[in-house]
Please model this.
Amino acid sequence: AGSRLNSSLNDTAASVTVFTKELLEDLGLNNLEQLSDYIPSTQMNYQDTAAAPNANNYMGGPNLVKNIDVRGIGASQGLDYFKSITVDDSYRIDRYDQSRGPNSILFGVGGAGGMINQTSILASTQRNSGRVSYQFGNNNSETNRTEFRLNRVILPNKVGLAVAGVHQENA
Model:
């Protein structure tokens, strides 16, 4: 996030915040709306003061990809450093990176306010693994959420398969 070069984050001349899978699990965060409370100078833009120019005409509501403002300026969202067009949910995400400010424009898909990138989970070719988690009653609402991740080695050190899924009910 913030450079096209494979360099240390300490050597990057950018304001970058990284949220790892472990931190997301520890805080019980499932999406960018919840994560925005922990990102400096960031808030969700709900376009609640006027009609949304980019409303989803087919569903009669807002876009599936929520808008984010960093320091009051619109920021881009990416999935593996491509423009994100999918609903944000952490069940398939390994980490989030945020690059704040106009330096993210240099990367190619960042807006003037910065970029929040989601890095997908990757299959491991070293060992089989899996996990199931259940969450309920998050953020003063009646939420029941079950997530699973499964990793299988198909050909050792060559081919692996990763699968992730989620089931959520909100009351």
